[in-house]
Design goal:
About 50% of the residues lie in helices and about 15% in strands. The chain is of the alpha/beta class. The strands form five sheets. The chain has a seven-stranded mixed sheet with strand order 1-11-12-13-9-14-15, sandwiched between helices. A five-stranded antiparallel sheet has the order 19-18-17-16-20, with no helix packed on it. It has a four-stranded antiparallel sheet with strand order 2-3-5-4. α23 runs parallel beside α24.
Length: about 800
């Protein structure tokens, strides 16, 4: 159910309907736009949205769209339903193009993906793959009618012969007329620049009325002044009569051809009409997709149940209007469900409350009309059966309705038809009458609507409705934010807290006298003014923390990019390391080849010197062992003693002096609690824990992680009194350094009891003075101001505090105290 009947004009959908109709290229498409209607059937809505989304992807891919030739030929088909009737040649030309479009559309959407099975556009395929093509009719029309909508000469042998005869007759008449014209010009009967012309299908000469008896022939016409007559010379009358006969034969033959084509079309008229209507519907889908592209709409997740979980939603009409002015629309994010399904928006006048209300209505209405809504595709939208709207002033003299009585009539309709699948939208609820009773009635109506389980968005200025939303399950407050510094609305919707009307600020900005404003503040009382102020502080704090969250999010994104960059760098280093090891092994193999050659030479020398055979075998055995060791990747391999004199020096080793290898004694197994020394250091330390090949060792107050290979066992050192004192002092110094590293120049005491907050601030200031901080921030919130007062009394007596003041309004205002330290 939709209420009221003019809901489209109230939401602005009438403009959208007109814009989509303008984008259609055929009357059938425009008719489909006018027939577009609201639907609460999930499958129907999903099918329409997917069709439009697939067409939108086609448009954005810059593909050649099928069905470019769209003509409204259905009326022409109705003309030839009677036997013996025919269609004009130009209309046949349009029909032929339309039939070609039908074939093109069917073939285009029948295509499949690369796998040959999955359709490229499944919803559009379902809609158009059943189209019937008419190749025989297309061929016949193409054979008989040219692209200008005229019957071709070769449409039939008879027509071809007749047109040749007509051409010959025209040539004969033209020659005869030229002879008569030359003779008459020579005799001065006609002007020398006179030329033959046509009158009633006959070739005539323009002759002065005074000279008309000088040329023998038939007068067919005269000029408007009567000074010129048009004469058909007697010499061409017979030829003209013959030409007229040929032209009548031509018309009879053309009619015969057109009737034969009509007879071919007539049995398939109904199927052709269905195909034409389908092409018109495709034109309608294309127009919807073009509009979606113009307003940056997309396909969200559609749920069967009512749901509103929207991101970046905006009013499409406002978007197009601001786009022409080179301005951007402010979108809204909205989440309504369960315990937060009814939103009560408050805020300043001209702050965007009504626009937010209309945005909710039109985005939901567009979606259920099968048009892509203007929000992000990660949004979730549900199906509502009823949309009930109370917008604008509906006072009527004819129906004896005032503004308020018209609102009450709408509320009666809401109460009667609301339910879990209903979306209620009401602007300035309870307005139009005495505020106290109007607010009470509005609250009562909202309570009943909440009991029905419906979803809704209403706007108000009434304080009792804001309180009601805070205290009642199912309702939630929302505020249109206002920039107090520049005294202008931001048009941003913030859900969770009520908004202020900013009446005093707006009045002051407009320029009302100060005494008038002061008197108004006295009349409403300080409690009301302060409550409004608290709302402003809450809104400011929300904006501050929102900016903080955004800053943190940006920093996290920056860190993610850095981490990704470092991971890529580490991967490159790992790959280079593997390449270096590979090159080292290749170099080792070269070393081995050189060593082998030298060894063979040494063996030959040994044999020649009749050395011991056992010594030769030992040398060969050590050589084979060395070969095997080079096959395994390793950081470093020892060279057999016998081959050391033969070892080939690398480029790096040639630049450095070679170092003598020392045998390494086998180290005992280490465990937690052992006292050890690190290579190159004389200090003794105790092992705290061992993980794999590394150990955590405490060298006095210093803890470090060391490779086990660098540690050796030692005796536990004797500790003197002085060293014990030094250890304690070191630990104290270490604690101080740790606190200094973790120190922040900001403390948050919100939520603490007064004595806890005073103690925390005292310790915090002591640390700040110790670590030479010149300025710190204390976050205590606004509340009733008690905590702030106590903290400032403590600051007043603190000798290290030089001054303190409120934070800038952009960063927290009265909820934060800035402290300057000596």
């Amino acid at each position: 159910m939709l209420y009221p009947n003019d809901i489209e004009s109230k939401l602005g959908f009438d403009f959208i309907r007109a814009e989509v109709s303008r984008l259609c290229s055929s009357r059938m498409g425009k008719d489909a736009v006018q027939a577009m209607s609201f639907s609460s059937d999930y499958n129907t809505v999903l099918r329409l949205l997917r069709q439009t989304s697939e067409m939108l992807s086609l448009i954005r891919s810059a593909s050649d769209l099928p069905g470019a030739n769209v003509y409204d030929v259905v009326p022409y088909l109705n003309e030839i339903k009677a036997s013996g009737s025919f269609m004009a040649a130009d209309r046949l030309n349009a029909l032929g193009k339309m039939l070609a479009s039908i074939s093109e559309v069917r073939n285009f959407f029948s295509r499949s993906d690369e796998d040959g099975v999955t359709p490229l556009y499944p919803e559009l395929k379902k809609e158009f793959e059943g189209l019937v093509s008419f190749p025989s009719i297309e061929r016949e029309i193409d054979r008989c009618v040219n692209k200008f909508g005229e019957i071709k000469d070769n449409a039939s042998p008879e027509l071809s012969e007749i047109r040749r005869s007509i051409s010959a007759a025209n040539g004969s008449i033209a020659r005869a007329m030229r002879r008569v014209l030359d003779r008459a010009a020579a005799e001065g009967v006609v002007d020398k620049d006179a030329a033959p012309t046509m009158r009633d299908g006959r070739m005539v000469l323009p002759v002065s009325a005074a000279m008309k008896r000088s040329i023998n022939g038939i007068i067919h016409d005269e000029s408007a002044t009567g000074k010129t007559v048009f004469i058909e010379p007697a010499e061409v009358v017979e030829a003209g009569n013959h030409l007229r006969e040929l032209q009548m034969q031509e018309r009879r033959e053309i009619v015969r051809i057109l009737i034969s084509i009509a007879n071919l079309i007539r049995p398939d008229i109904e199927l052709i009409e269905e195909g034409c209507l389908s092409i018109g519907y495709l034109d309608f889908i294309k127009a919807k997709a073009m509009f979606a592209n113009n307003v940056d709409a997309s396909l969200p997740r559609i749920e069967k149940k009512p749901e509103i979980d929207w991101f970046n939603a905006f009013h499409p009409v406002l978007y197009l209007t601001l786009k022409q002015q080179d301005r951007k629309v402010v979108p809204l994010n909205l989440h309504l469900e369960g315990e937060r399904r009814f939103l009560i928006i408050s805020g300043p006048n001209a702050g965007g409350k009504s626009v937010a209300l209309k945005t909710v209505g039109i985005v939901q209405y567009m979606m259920q009309c099968g048009m892509l809504p203007t929000l992000y595709d990660n949004s979730h939208m549900g199906i509502f059966e009823n949309i009930l709207v109370d917008l604008g002033d509906e006072q009527s003299m004819e129906n004896d309705l005032s503004t308020y009585s018209s609102h009450l009539r709408n509320m009666k309709m809401f109460l009667r038809n609301s339910g879990p699948s209903t979306l209620v939208l009401a602007d300035e609820m309870g307005s139009g009458t005495e505020p106290q009773i109007g607010g009470a009635l509005a609250q009562s109506i909202l309570y009943r609507l909440g009991e029905s389980g419906c979803f809704g968005v209403v706007t108000t200025h009434y304080q009792n409705l804001k309180t009601f939303a805070d205290e009642t399950s199912g309702f939630v407050n929302g505020a249109m934010l206002y920039d107090r510094q520049h005294l202008r609305p931001t048009f941003q919707l913030s859900v969770g807290n009520p908004g202020s009307s900013f009446a005093i600020e707006i009045a002051r900005n407009i320029g009302l006298p100060a005494e008038v404003i002061d008197m108004a503040k006295e009349l409403v009382g300080s409690d009301y003014v302060n409550s409004d102020k608290y709302l402003l502080d809450i809104a400011r704090d929300r904006k501050y923390w929102s900016n903080k969250r955004q800053s943190i999010k940006e920093k996290e994104q920056h860190l993610d990019k850095l981490l990704e960059k470092y991971e890529d760098t580490a991967s490159d280093l790992k790959q280079k390391r593997a390449e270096i090891l590979k090159d080292a092994r290749e170099e080792a193999r070269e070393i081995l080849k050189t060593a082998n050659a030298r060894l063979e030479k040494a063996i030959r020398d040994i044999k020649n010197a009749e050395a011991e055979k056992e010594r030769t075998r030992q040398i060969r055995r050590e050589l084979e062992d060395y070969k095997e060791s080079l096959k395994e990747p390793a950081e470093e391999k020892s060279v057999p003693e016998a081959l050391k004199p033969l070892k080939h020096k690398s480029k790096k080793s040639r630049e450095e002096s070679s170092k003598k290898n020392k045998p390494i004694a086998e180290k005992p197994e280490l465990s937690a609690g052992d006292w050890v020394k690190m290579d190159g250091s004389g200090s003794a330390g105790q092992i705290i824990s061992i993980q794999g090949k590394k150990a955590e060792v405490a060298f006095g107050p210093l803890r470090t992680t060391v490779d086990l290979s660098r540690l050796s066992t030692t005796q536990k050192p004797k500790q003197s009194a002085a060293s014990q004192t030094l250890t304690v002092s070191s630990q104290t110094s270490e604690d101080s350094r740790r606190r200094q590293l973790n120190f922040k120049n900001e403390i948050d005491v919100r939520g603490m009891r007064a004595d806890e907050a005073i103690q925390a601030v005292t310790y915090f200031l002591d640390d700040a003075v110790q670590f030479s901080a010149s300025k710190v921030r204390i976050l205590h919130g606004t509340g009733h101001g008690i905590l702030k007062t106590l903290i400032r009394e403590q600051l007043r007596v603190n000798p290290n505090v030089t001054s303190y003041h409120d934070e800038d309004v952009r960063f927290g205002g009265a909820g934060i105290t800035i402290v300057n330290l000596s």
